[in-house]
Amino acid sequence: xxxxxxxxxxxxxxxxxxxxxxxxxxxxxxxxxxxxxxxxxxxxxxxxxxxxxxxxxxxxxxxxxxxxxxxxxxxxxxxxxxxxxxxxxxxxxxxxxxxxxxxxxxxxxxxxxxxxxxxxxxxxxxxxxxxxxxxxxxxxxxxxxxxxxxxxxxxxxxxxxxxxxxxxxxxxxxxxxxxxxxxxxxxxxxxxxxxxxxxxxxxxxxxxxxxxxxxxxxxxxxxxxxxxxxxxxxxxxxxxxxxxxxxxxxxxxxxxxxxxxxxxxxxxxxxxxxxxxxxxxxxxxxxxxxxxx
Amino acid sequence: xxxxxxxxxxxxxxxxxxxxxxxxxxxxxxxxxxxxxxxxxxxxxxxxxxxxxxxxxxxxxxxxxxxxxxxxxxxxxxxxxxxxxxxxxxxxxxxxxxxxxxxxxxxxxxxxxxxxxxxxxxxxxxxxxxxxxxxxxxxxxxxxxxxxxxxxxxxxxxxxxxxxxxxxxxxxxxxxxxxxxxxxxxxxxxxxxxxxxxxxxxxxxxxxxxxxxxxxxxxxxxxxxxxxxxxxxxxxxxxxxxxxxxxxxxxxxxxxxxxxxxxxxxxxxxxxxxxxxxxxxxxxxxxxxxxxxxxxxxxxxxxxxxxxxxxxxxxxxxxxxxxxxxxxxxxxxxxxxxxxxxxxxxxxxxxxxxxxxxxxxxxxxxxxxxxxxxxxxxxxxxxxxxxxxxxxxxxxxxxxxxxxxxxxxxxxxxxxxxxxxxxxxxxxxxxxxxxxxxxxxxxxxxxxxxxxxxxxxxxxxxxxxxxxxxxxxxxxxxxxxxxxxxxxxxxxxxxxxxxxxxxxxxxxxxxxxxxxxxxxxxxxxxxxxxxxxxxxxxxxxxxxxxxxxxxxxxxxxxxxxxxxxxxxxxxxxxxxxxxxxxxxxxxxxxxxxx
Lengths: 293, 594
Description:
The complex is a heterodimer. Chain A is an alpha/beta fold. Chain A has helices at residues 3-21, 33-45, 64-76, 87-91, 103-120, 207-217, 253-261, 275-279, 285-289, and strands at residues 25-28, 54-57, 81-84, 126-129, 134-137, 146-148, 165-168, 196-199, 232-233, 246-247. In chain A, α1 (3-21) packs across α2 (33-45) and α6 (207-217) runs antiparallel to α7 (253-261). Chain B is elongated, with a radius of gyration of 30 Å.
């Protein structure tokens, strides 16, 4: 069995374990390539169905193509799509682009806070109604106790210490020093009331593996990853104001793989275009301990 | 390939890896400079270990807390190097890291020599199933690169490894700090002509997936998603060994029921004709027998798994609280999950020196032990010599995974004889053209067995009849069966004296009642049966007979002298009626009623 099939099988195994063990679960879909691979794995694990909601945190500063792509796949694949937002911070203009807070605070408000309250259900969730073809206020306000996330251990230091099944307390915080043991495909699935779990099926994948899989499975990805003729493309996607494109003429998936393996990006970290990482001295650790993905 | 690096605390694991990365140019551009600059800023000397210990906690304490994963590439292949913590406090993290590996490095400080966790890690690696190991005798710079010191460590540790059946082991003298024998041969140790860490890592053999072995697949779930007109019923799971083909005859354990693969399912592209070990897959069946999560699937004509509820195991314990008798735990093996107890400790071994204590009656944190476990109901499993994958289990204490181990032997218990009969019956079972699933769909509910136990008392039957009435009013296909109906009829050949059976006949009476229950389960109804003085063994007989259908037990009256833990207990039989609503709620949770 080749490495990609091995990674795929473990990912599907983890998704099925999660589905068998947790009742109120969701999957985070950031629209980026990693969580889109995750979505693809879910459709393979459950034979074309996605038996839990897909949750997107809309900061309203995402690059517009990302939202178009999200909604077009939602329609095409009949996805159970839900989004949440920090409407208070946006209305009060407590954002970095408005010039009122720094990048880290902006991330905390528009992402970490919005995520926390969307997951526990006390802020409004919007669910896509396929009959009406529009987002409507989601009547389901129950907290999600299991959250599937597409983080990879090669992204930055703190992520390399994650478990496949990682418990978080009510404050979403992460105790790195005291994590459950995990071996022989047996995961922690028993939880005290009030705790929830993050599930990481892509932990062992590298950036190259992700692209190789996208190529093998022909998974549709957002056009921003490819050079459209300007000699620039995005390597990692986030909010417009804090994500820089890179100089690259890779126009399709094979060219990206080539660039990662032997070209100019072979030794440059993927998130190097993400400005918030540099402001946080501990990698993403400060943000992650507080619930950032 | 995944390779773990282990060893006693401060024996230099992270330094060796950091050095290997730096000397082979495997670090991202600027990473080395960044860490060096950060050290200069905080006026502390640069260490290669800092490259790995990316987390703040670890930098300030100077030790590895969790297993960090590092991606590394040689000309031959890609590696994930798992840097496991050496501190005893973080043994569970070491286990987590090591279990993902196919081969291991173990660091021993040449100056300090073999320490407690050198041995403990060696022992755990062996139990985790890691066969290839390379011992790095590190910090050779501190002993003036003395060959004699190296030889001494090799001699001492080889003896230990032979004792624990670790045979595929090599040794290399290195210095992580100075870079000796890491990426290139050391000028300081001209006496060493062997491998460097870099040349040795490429010599680890890739473990073959066990697809040449007999077939095993733990059932993860049975999917029936009806959206978008999907009518498939797919048995899903990851194959732990062997291969599966279209048309294969399969047995599902612990029940031993049989069906045939009608097709291997796939989401994209064409369905494969064959799938093998390690693959996450799913298949449909020609006969819709009742299968559920936790079942173990085997193929006809191959070695079948063990079924039982008593097993001799080797285990290691990570929990804060010791592993003791008289406490209930959860055992997880494959996808099975069952309540269990420690029946006996055969011997408890202090893994740090391999001294064993035959008298110790509990297993403490970081101990390794040989024990006998009992599960609440029979489960399917394998023994480690036959199928390592499906012999592995973990033990959950409260909410935490507190231990893990391998099953060495299935012990025959007092139910074994009857279990064999049940398996034989299941193998020979002849089903009509209507499957259980079709019956359930038509009746609007699945079959269920509710046992009402308790001391001999008329109120037990009254309560059971009320329960029958309630379920009937909800439109359930339900039937009350009083034990005396059976005693006077089916059991008329046995000696009956005022409804008291002689003890030697009781087992046979229970067997018949359990077989009758199984027939009625196949009919598809909910059966409410009363059994006086129901015992633990009686209930096991019912469970075994009707498996995989769940048995609900309701106890009416005093529990004195009873060994059954009922799902619901009504302590005072006179007040049974006031418990009806609670019992119905319980049945609702189990999906028996609305």
